[in-house]
Write a structure and sequence with these properties.
The structure is a single chain. By secondary structure, this protein is mostly helical. It has a domain of about 30 residues. Helix content is about 75%, strand content about 10%. A hairpin with a 2-residue loop joins strand 1 and strand 2. Helix 1 packs antiparallel against helix 2. The longest helix is centred in the C-terminal third of the chain and has 28 residues. It is elongated, with a radius of gyration of 15 Å. The two termini are about 15 Å apart.
Length: about 70
C-alpha cells in the first residue's frame, strides 16, 4: 500500500467515524457498552478529535500530491 492510498483510506475512515459520532449527538442516541451507558460528551470529544485527525489526513494527502 503506498502513502497516497494509506492517507486517503485513513482520512476517510476517520471522517466516517466522526460523522457517526456527530449523528449520535444530534439524534441523542444511547450507546451501551457492557452495561455502561456511554455519555454524550464523550461523543462530542470524539467528533472534535477524530474530525481533526480526518482533516489532517486530507491536508497531508493534499500536500503530498502537490509535492509530486
Amino acid at each position: 500500500m503506498n502513502k497516497k492510498t494509506y492517507l486517503s483510506t485513513a482520512a476517510t475512515i476517520f471522517l466516517i467515524v466522526a460523522t457517526l459520532h456527530l449523528l449520535r449527538v444530534i439524534y441523542k442516541l444511547e450507546v451501551v457498552v457492557g452495561g455502561w451507558v456511554v455519555p454524550q460528551w464523550l461523543s462530542v470529544l470524539a467528533v472534535v478529535f477524530i474530525g481533526y485527525m480526518s482533516y489532517q489526513g486530507f491536508e497531508n494527502l493534499k500536500n503530498k500530491l502537490w509535492k509530486q
